[in-house]
TrEMBL record:
Keywords: Hydrolase
GO function term, MF aspect, one: hydrolase activity
Pfam families for the chain: Glyco_hydro_19
Protein name as catalogued: Glycoside hydrolase family 19 protein
PANTHER family assigned: FAMILY PROTEIN, PUTATIVE-RELATED (PTHR34408), GLYCOSYL HYDROLASE FAMILY 19 DOMAIN-CONTAINING PROTEIN HI_1415 (PTHR34408:SF1)
UniProt key word Hydrolase: yes
Superkingdom of the organism of origin: Bacteria
Keyword Hydrolase belongs to the record: yes
Lineage: Bacteria, Pseudomonadati, Pseudomonadota, Alphaproteobacteria, Rhodobacterales
Glycoside hydrolase family 19 catalytic domain mapped to chain residues: 111-158
């Protein structure tokens, strides 16, 4: 079991896995110093980054929104729904409007919205954040913003974020120690968007690192396959056992074979 295996099981392809793993190797000592120093923390970092980056495929924010998408997501930045049609499918123009005059960015004309749009596995956004996290990792990201999308820097920024972001009195790394994917997710996302997949990816990474399969991963996989295990809480209760037995009966396999079937569905 290895970090390479953990990244590979969460990646979209061997190509994306190779790039992500090579980058990890190049900064592994630095990740350790930041606090990525046990398997729970490694699994949290890999799993959350895999989810946020479409399994390591995406390192730039997609701002190619339709007018309807702009009105749905960025409504407060436009005077009317009609105005969104002037911006539709124009990513640079969209970024300079919706990110203007906040997060340390200048006005629309400054171009900061586009210059400091989301990059990296966890989508670093805004001039202040580029400055802050650049200082944390020893990179001039303000003057070299595209560097934030390089895989080695993606890992470092994400690790610093987990180490420095706190929720309910604990850092996200401390919540990872407690195997609380929900709290790590809330610290990254502000809510629970994509929680089931985050559980799956974190569970896959942890299993690849340790050989153990978490109950939370079983629950997320069962739910995705249409077998209700109850809440995804990491506890092997009666509902989870019943869902697992129902899945075993349905697919005609058990144990590791059932796990693989459920993973293949995801």
């Amino acid at each position: 079991m290895s970090i390479e295996s953990a990244i590979r099981v969460c990646a979209s392809s061997s190509v994306t896995a190779g790039a992500a793993f090579a980058a990890w190797q190049s900064v592994e000592d630095r990740l350790q110093r930041i606090g990525i120093d046990n398997d729970r923390r490694r699994a949290a970092l890999i799993g959350q980054c895999a989810h946020e980056s479409a399994r390591f495929r995406t390192r730039f924010e997609n701002l190619n929104y339709s007018a309807a998408g702009l009105w749905k997501i960025f409504r407060r930045h436009f005077s009317s729904e009609a105005e969104t049609h002037q911006f539709a499918r124009q990513p640079e123009k969209i970024a300079n409007r919706v990110y203007r005059n906040r997060m340390g960015n200048g006005d629309t004309a400054s171009g900061d919205g586009w210059r400091y749009r989301g990059r990296g596995y966890l989508q670093l956004t805004g001039k202040d954040n580029y400055r802050r996290y650049g200082e944390h990792i020893g990179e001039d990201l303000v003057n070299n913003p595209d560097r934030a999308a390089d895989p080695d820097v993606c890992w470092l920024i994400a690790a610093e974020y987990l180490a420095r972001t706190h929720r309910s009195g604990r850092s996200l790394l401390e919540w990872a120690d407690a195997d609380d994917v929900l709290m790590v997710t809330k610290g990254i996302n502000g809510g629970t968007h994509g929680l089931a997949d985050r559980e799956v990816q974190t569970g896959r990474a942890f299993a690849a690192l340790t050989g153990e399969v978490s109950t939370a991963e079983w629950q997320a996989l069962l739910l995705n396959a249409g077998f209700n295990p109850g809440p995804i809480d990491g506890l092997m209760g009666d509902k989870t056992r019943a869902a697992r037995e129902a899945a075993a009966a349905h697919f005609g396999v058990q144990g590791d074979a059932l796990l693989q079937v459920l993973r293949d569905i995801t």
